[in-house]
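Case study 2.
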Amino acid sequence: MDWFQEYKMLVFSESTSLENIDRAISLKYEHIPNMLYKYRSINEYSLKNLEDDSIWLSDPKNFNDPYDCSFHHEVEIDPDSADSVLSIAFKHSLVDGLTEEQIQAVRESENPMVKLLELSYPDKPDFGRSCGEALSHVMKERATALSRETSEGFKQMFKICCFSENPKSILMWSHYANYHTGFCIGYDFHELGNEDVRTRSIYPVVYSDEMFNATGVFGSPKNVNNILYLNQVALMKSTEWSYEKEWRLVFGNMLIQQEMPYRMPKPKCVILGAKISSNNEDSIRKICNRKNIEVLKLYMRHNQFVLDIHQ
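Prediction:
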């Protein structure tokens, strides 16, 4: 994934240029897998997508991972930041009765909000300390809630379709293809060419133990001047999902406002689940025969936890 670090520098930096974006798209095009797969359960919608050469662009709020497309950001009111606490204090004349030495003590304290309130009540320091601890707690709770509300509200900016490099994942057949009774569709994004909007809009997922930090957009100071920057939010998932080897077709910035079907090239192949019913297999084979799409089928190896693909 080293190439993707270079890609991120070109297209997801705090500011970028059309030249850098074009270089990044060419770099990514070189590394798109020969085939990407979409796992599907069998229902009227998935069969219609197969018939129409389309996929479904989904809202992240409907994904099975509650953290999907989430981010965090630092808020300006931080009770653990001396600069933040003193900024508020000076603004509201809360330090008028303090000496320079006391203000410096606030700066050096591990709990500046608590220290400020303690010094503000020289005759009742215990009372001031209790007030400071209570206020600090409330401010932290509010900061967390504000960051979460911003993140949840921002999810509607994205419409996404998810693919995988791996068509033989036992877990993914269970999670996304109705316990191996569904099917999997193989797409070749290379045949679309480097300039196609679908090729330009597909990205590998980045697995991380840390949530995306959007402070440069929503916090202070705001130092991001790149409309593509926040697309990274749609690409970062917990390392617990890394087995999916996922790529995502991502449309951000409200380019697409509602969930909807979206045109795709004709599939290169369709893979039937190992436990697909005979009726559903017949339905899919009829569609594929009519459209001249290769049909493959998964079989469970008798002596290993492995799925094999055969014609």
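The chain is about 40% helix and 20% strand.
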